[in-house]
């Protein structure tokens, strides 16, 4: 099974979730657009050394919104250039930032899974204001009739925030990643075992 990993914003935990899913599903990893360094692909590789990494369609130099980073590099991101890498394995595809991060003047990150017909896993990190950001993201996903497998919450637990998000989304919780002092290969493996059973349920 292939999944597109999106989130309610930047630094929500997409790369961490992607690494866990790659380990759990023995999946390949692909980030279609990388803006700035270090590459998220390198982080995934360091946490899941056996993971096969597919090259980015657009590897941009400046850590900024893809449309702005591409402009600095003198290129324009073309949605038609995105196609799934050829593999016999499952594939985890990581987005850039949140759903409405612009790729160019007309297309957004969320257009990638829509074009490639990928089911979505939404990462919601819990902070003051995350209810609003999560529900706005969910409304967008529903407006586009995209298939959402569920939500992975990331960070210190906030049961009331999680409850109200789930109530208004009708999505299920796939898992909750705790606030970890350090992310290691061992920790990735521990979460992978737990997530594997949830995705197969």
Describe the structure.
The structure is a single chain. The chain is α/β, with parallel strands linked by helices and 201 residues long. The chain has one domain: P-loop containing nucleotide triphosphate hydrolases (Rossmann fold), CATH 3.40.50. Helices cover 37% and strands 19% of the residues. The chain has helices at residues 14-25, 40-47, 66-73, 111-116, 130-143, 159-169, 185-200; strands at 3-7, 28-30, 33-35, 53-54, 58-60, 91-94, 120-125, 148-154, 173-177. Strands 4-2-6-1-7-8-9 form a 7-stranded parallel β-sheet, with helices on both faces. Helix 1 (14-25) crosses helix 2 (40-47). The relative contact order is 0.19. The model has no long low-confidence stretch (mean pLDDT 96).
Mind sketching the topology for me?
Layout: E1 3-7, H1 14-25, E2 28-30, E3 33-35, H2 40-47, E4 53-54, E5 58-60, H3 66-73, E6 91-94, H4 111-116, E7 120-125, H5 130-143, E8 148-154, H6 159-169, E9 173-177, H7 185-200
Parallel strand pairs: 1-6, 1-7, 2-4, 2-6, 3-5, 7-8, 8-9
Helix pairs in contact: 1-2, 1-7, 5-6
Average pLDDT level: 96
Q: CATH superfamily, please? A: P-loop containing nucleotide triphosphate hydrolases
Calculate Rg over CA atoms. Answer: 16 Å
CATH topology: Rossmann fold
CATH class label: Alpha Beta
Strand content: 15-25%
Q: Helix and strand string, N-terminal first?
A: EHEEHEEHEHEHEHEH
- Helical amount: 25-40%
Number of domains: 1
Number of strands: 9
Number of alpha- plus pi-helical segments = 7
Largest sheet: 7 strands, parallel
How far apart the termini lie comes to: 14 Å
CATH architecture name: 3-Layer(aba) Sandwich
Give the uncertain stretches in residue-range form. none
Question: Within the largest sheet, what's the order of strands?
Answer: 4-2-6-1-7-8-9
């Amino acid at each position: 099974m292939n999944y597109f990993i999106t989130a309610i914003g930047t630094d929500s935990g997409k790369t961490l979730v992607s690494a866990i899913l790659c380990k759990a599903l023995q999946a390949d990893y692909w980030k279609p657009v990388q803006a700035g360094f270090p590459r998220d692909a390198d982080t995934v590789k360091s946490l899941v050394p056996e993971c096969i990494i597919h090259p980015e369609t657009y590897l941009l130099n400046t850590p900024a919104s893809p449309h702005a980073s591409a402009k600095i590099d003198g290129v324009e991101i073309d949605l038609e250039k995105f196609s799934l890498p050829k593999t016999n394995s499952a594939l985890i595809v990581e987005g850039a930032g949140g759903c409405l991060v612009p790729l160019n003047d007309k297309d957004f990150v969320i257009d990638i899974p829509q074009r490639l017909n990928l089911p979505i896993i939404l990462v919601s990190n819990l902070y003051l204001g995350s209810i609003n950001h999560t529900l706005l993201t969910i409304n967008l996903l529903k407006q586009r009739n995209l298939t959402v497998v569920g939500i992975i919450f990331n960070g210190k637990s906030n049961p009331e925030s999680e409850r109200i998000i789930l109530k208004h989304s009708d999505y299920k919780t796939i898992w909750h990643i705790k606030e970890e002092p350090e992310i290691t290969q061992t920790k990735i493996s521990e979460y992978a075992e737990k997530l594997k059973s949830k995705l197969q349920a």
